[in-house]
Amino acid sequence: MTVNITFRHLEPTEALKERIHERIDRLQRFLDRPTEAHAVLHVENLKHHAEITVKAGTYRLRGEACTEDMYASIDAAADRIARQLMKHKEKVQTVGKTNGIAHHNPQSQPVEVAPIVH
């Protein structure tokens, strides 16, 4: 996977580069093919911003986070992308199993719902 990192108003350190590569490598397990990623790290006032964009085939996934700590921002942005990937993968698997048609299970029993009393 190709990873591009841009630092704005911030000293590029090996620790930050390593953290970005580590978090994007974790995202690779959700992807079927090698992709491209771009991370932008910048500081505004006392807030640390991390923006990560991952190209996965025809999809472009973006995670953005702003916290007091750059490492926490990187983690939060990567977690947002991971949630998007899991949601997409679940959606693809569900459609693949049903072929886009909702199946009715005749053995399922109706569930009774108790009325809400105020």
Count of beta strands: 4
**What would the principal axes of the Cα set say about the shape?**
globular
Determine the oligomeric state from the structure: single chain
Q: Output mean pLDDT.
A: 83
Percent of residues in helical segments?
25-40%
What is the CATH top level name? Alpha Beta
Trace the largest sheet across and list its strands.
1-2-3-4
CATH architecture: 2-Layer Sandwich
Main β-sheet description: 4 strands, mixed
- CATH fold-level topology: Double Stranded RNA Binding Domain
Commentary on this structure:
This protein is α+β, with helices and mostly antiparallel strands. It has a single domain, classed as Ribosome hibernation promotion factor-like (Double Stranded RNA Binding Domain, 2-Layer Sandwich), CATH 3.30.160.100. Helices cover 36% and strands 30% of the residues. It has two helices and four strands; from the N terminus they run βαβββα. A four-stranded mixed sheet has the order 1-2-3-4. The longest helix is centred in the last third of the chain and has 29 residues, at 70-98. It is globular. The protein starts with a strand and ends in a 20-residue tail after the last helix.
